[in-house]
Design a protein that fits this description.
With about 600 residues, the chain is of the alpha/beta class. Helix content is about 45%, strand content about 20%. The strands form five sheets. Strands 5-6-7-3-8-9 form a six-stranded mixed sheet, with helices on both faces.
Length: about 600
């Protein structure tokens, strides 16, 4: 990568844990404005490398050089907060500065964290990760280091984050399994493989092409070395022990050649196809199901409203939608874990569910990996007289024989998720229900899972924000839009987005019509009107103050820009601030109107 005045220069870095060498003699650099994606298999040291760069983890050898006075922002995989401080106070560095507080509120709103006074202990793990992401973005560092930034974001948030990171000359190093994100954001891919690092100057699609070229070239080099090795081996066996200078030189070259000839490129296994899966013609029928949850001081949260759907044999359905629209609740209702308010799910007699949930990661850490799977089954019947042992099945999902005899507590977060996936598949279900299966899995595992699901002769439902994964696997979508509005779309995610772009731009008119209808209903039904709550009154008062302050700031900026005495640096700063300020004004004015009409 560019060595000219880099933001970060890593030289000859080596890190090991006991006898396990994660990487050796690693060198790379990141220049200003580069957006770098780091790709590696689970357990090979991605998160460890980011921890080393952030100073939280030591290393054995090498040098890490940051440009002097460089401000670095780090998003960890599992951030920690003071459980008693508020969301806003958890956004460090605002120090009461109104501009920083305003930016914090804007970013948190985009990430759908709206109650800024809520104590951090009341937030879910996903919400805490979003607060941590907001923290990093708010501080506007010179170099952003992000570990799985798209985990716990819905599609709307992911697309917003893509736009945010693509604006301006931001410099970025991130680990992510989100291949759409890598394609759209990154200009350089670093691949950590075989204890070393390979650099590809392009996005994810470019990386795929060039990586295959590298592997093909390496395979050809090993084949050539093998041919020559056989010839040299004959010479070594014929030659007497007492050798001259030239012979000794040839002998040394032989040992170097032997190292290359004995290398093995990790071959992708043949696709795992199960034929021993039977599912009857009756799968499930969702018969006019309704479900809503009561909320204090707000209308009930509607998940389903008289929803009907008849699931087809061999269907591969994707479920997408923003967080809080009821995707996971729908799955739990299908599995009988949550009861509907009305209607019912009629499940076929032959259906055997395999459920991969977001909460299902519970293992005995003192067990060996192989024993976890053997406790479920010693082997899986693939049909056609073919069986796979537990060990062979694990090996297919990239657990080496050595890793299989490791204890569970030694596994990385991604490896634990992969083991959980193996335990679900090992039960040989005929209907797979996968709720966010891609979080924390490496790209190689995702490719194996994609192939498995493409060939799977049963039924599949996938809830996921991973657009690339959805495109590969599903042929049908349910789009949860919120408040019981569900769009049934025959196609994958990209096809849905293309269809959506072609639809007439009517949301504003539709919203106005709904608002007008609601106003008429309120006028006709005076008893439906309600008073502002104490919290809403306080919010309305604060909005009036905020709007007044923003109007003053806007006027000052506009006068300064027209005055002719402002420096170039100040003009640049003000020009960036003005559109942000206008957006904030629009948002607050709309909310003020909303509250003032209650």
């Amino acid at each position: 990568m560019a060595k000219e005045n880099p933001y970060l220069d890593v030289q000859h870095l080596t890190k090991s844990f006991g006898s396990l060498v994660l990487f050796r003699d690693l060198s790379f650099s990141i220049a200003e404005g580069q957006k770098v994606g780091l790709i590696a298999k689970n357990g090979t040291g991605k998160s460890t490398l980011l921890s080393i760069l952030s100073g939280k983890e030591g290393y054995d050898e090498g040098e890490i050089i940051f440009r002097r006075d460089l401000r670095v922002g780090m998003l960890e995989q599992s951030p920690a907060f003071d459980p008693n401080e508020s969301v806003l106070d958890a956004c460090f560095n605002h120090q009461g500065d109104p501009e920083k507080v305003l930016k914090a509120k804007q970013v948190l709103t985009q990430l759908k964290i709206r109650d800024l006074e809520q104590p951090m202990r009341q937030l879910s793990g996903g919400q805490q990760k979003r607060v941590a992401l907001a923290n990093v973005l708010i501080t506007d560092p010179d170099l952003l280091i992000l570990d799985e930034p798209t985990n716990h974001l819905d599609l709307e948030m992911i697309e917003w984050l893509e736009g945010y990171l693509n604006r301006g000359n931001k410099t970025l190093l991130m680990v992510t399994h989100d291949r759409f994100f890598l394609d759209r954001v990154c200009s350089v891919i670093l691949e950590l493989d075989d204890q070393t690092v390979y650099t590809y100057r392009g996005n994810y699609s470019y990386y795929l092409e060039k990586r295959q070229e590298r592997i093909d070239n390496r395979r050809a080099e090993i084949a050539r070395a093998n041919n020559l090795y056989r010839t040299e081996l004959e010479w070594m066996r014929r030659m007497p022990q007492a050798r001259g200078h030239k012979a000794r030189y040839r002998e040394e070259a032989f040992y170097e050649l032997e190292k290359i000839a004995k290398q093995r490129i990790e071959e992708r296994q043949v696709r795992l196809k199960s034929r021993n899966v039977y599912i009857g013609s009756k799968i499930f029928e969702c018969q006019y199901v309704s479900k809503a949850f009561e909320r204090p001081e707000a209308e009930p949260l509607t998940i389903l409203k008289d929803f009907y759907y008849n699931f087809s044999r061999f269907e591969k359905m994707g479920i997408v939608g923003n967080n809080g629209t009821g995707k996971s609740t729908f799955i739990k209702m299908l599995l009988g874990q949550v009861a509907p308010d009305s209607g019912k799910f009629d499940i076929g007699d032959t259906v055997r569910f395999g459920y991969f949930s977001q909460e299902g990661l519970h293992f005995d850490d003192t067990q060996k990996v192989i024993d976890v799977v053997k406790d479920i089954a010693e082997y899986i019947d693939m049909g056609g007289g073919k069986h796979l042992t537990a060990s062979q099945f694990l090996q297919h999902f990239m657990f080496t024989p050595e890793q299989q005899h490791n204890y569970v507590y030694k596994l990385s977060g991604g490896e634990r998720r992969k083991l959980y996936l193996c335990t679900v598949l090992m039960k040989n279900p005929n209907f797979l229900v996968l709720d966010e299966p891609t979080n924390d899995l490496d790209i190689v595992t995702l490719q194996i899972l994609e192939e498995y699901l493409q060939d799977f002769p049963g039924c599949v439902i996938v809830v996921s924000h991973d657009r690339y994964f959805m495109d590969k696997v599903v042929d049908h979508l349910l789009v949860f839009k919120g408040m019981g509005d569900i769009k049934d779309f025959p196609g994958n995610y990209t096809q849905y987005r293309e269809w959506e772009k072609l639809q007439p731009d009517e949301p504003k008119e539709a919203k106005e019509q709904k608002a007008e209808k609601a106003t008429k209903q309120s006028a006709n039904n005076p008893q439906q009107k309600r008073k502002l709550t104490f919290k809403e009154k306080r919010e309305l008062e604060q909005l009036e103050k905020d709007i007044e302050a923003l109007e003053v700031e806007k006027k000052q900026i506009e006068e300064a820009l027209c005055g002719g005495t402002t420096s170039v640096e100040e003009i640049t700063t003000m020009s960036k601030r003005l559109p942000v300020l206008n957006d904030e004004l629009d948002e607050k004015s709309m909310r003020w109107l909303e509250l003032s009409e209650i």
